[in-house]
Automatic annotation (TrEMBL):
GO molecular function, one term: phosphatidylcholine lysophospholipase activity
Pfam family, one: Lipase_GDSL_2
Name of this chain's protein: Lysophospholipase L1
SUPFAM superfamilies linked: SGNH hydrolase
Domain SGNH hydrolase-type esterase intervals: 7-182
Organism: Paractinoplanes atraurantiacus
Domain of life of the native organism: Bacteria
Alphabetical list of InterPro entries matching this protein: Ester_Hydrolysis_Enzymes, SGNH_hydro, SGNH_hydro_sf
Amino acid sequence: MTLRFAILGDSIAYGQGAATRQDTVAARLSADLTAHGVANEPRVFAVPGAQSRDLPAQARPAVSWRPDVVLIIIGANDLTRFVPPAQAVAPLTAAVRTLRTAGSEVVVAPAPDLSVVPWVPAEMRALVQAGSRILHDAQTRAVLAEGAHVADIGMSSAAGFAGDLSLFSADRFHPSSAGYAVIAAALAPAIRQAASVAAG
């Protein structure tokens, strides 16, 4: 059996900033599954710039493909556009429910801690971190209630990015290839767990 692995979400899910397609989250996680004996076919439905409101539109074609495991990375663009947490969480919840109803195991990586982004002024970092945490926690509660898995990289990986500018690409916002390696390593255990559940 070849596991169908769908990736939904924003530019991080898409891989913007990576030097090559092999460096993206999708490719790295696919390679990790293969290394653990799980034959898989990844397909990226993510769109750079996507907000949570765009997830239902991504979920529809994904469901038609009948994925076994779905990864959703979302939240950064909601934060930069000051989308209220409740307004961001509602379409995420709807997308997860649609995917779960279709039989997919879903892994959600909630909002990252944007306070580590280099262009955030030092005097604003505490406020940005607090806002990131509020959305992150609201997303986490909502998707767990829908039976999804949560890969908590948004806050836990922040320290590494804060201390190493090489993890950012030239735009100082999106991850570099090295940054994607850090993110994929943090996501991999949850993806392997979801794949195990999907395999029955």
